[in-house]
Amino acid sequence: xxxxxxxxxxxxxxxxxxxxxxxxxxxxxxxxxxxxxxxxxxxxxxxxxxxxxxxxxxxxxxxxxxxxxxxxxxxxxxxxxxxxxxxxxxxxxxxxxxxxxxxxxxxxxxxxxxxxxxxxxxxxxxxxxxxxxxxxxxxxx
Length: 141
Hints:
single chain, alpha/beta, 7-stranded mixed sheet, 4 helices
């Protein structure tokens, strides 16, 4: 079943993040597909904030590939940015499957760069910019 959430603007992020987290249920592997500038990191920041992570602790792990945050209950949250990955083996070098198999939330930006390594149960989420500047977050569940 296709699901969608519209994010009207920055002031709407908190609502959208909470709605998304409710809607995804027990899914822990979330891959965000979107063009540059569509809001992947901004939405990931809102998700982390909704989970109790200090907002200023969240940043794009473009150079580190993965950042680890702690949610409000002390649970790890892993934030990946595969933008600079040129060969999927680079993701394996950081212990990708240890993270993905941990059972903790893994939020992944630019997953198309490691597509062949993603487990089947990965929830593939698209973020698109609408003509009015809003964002459409959509996925099949």
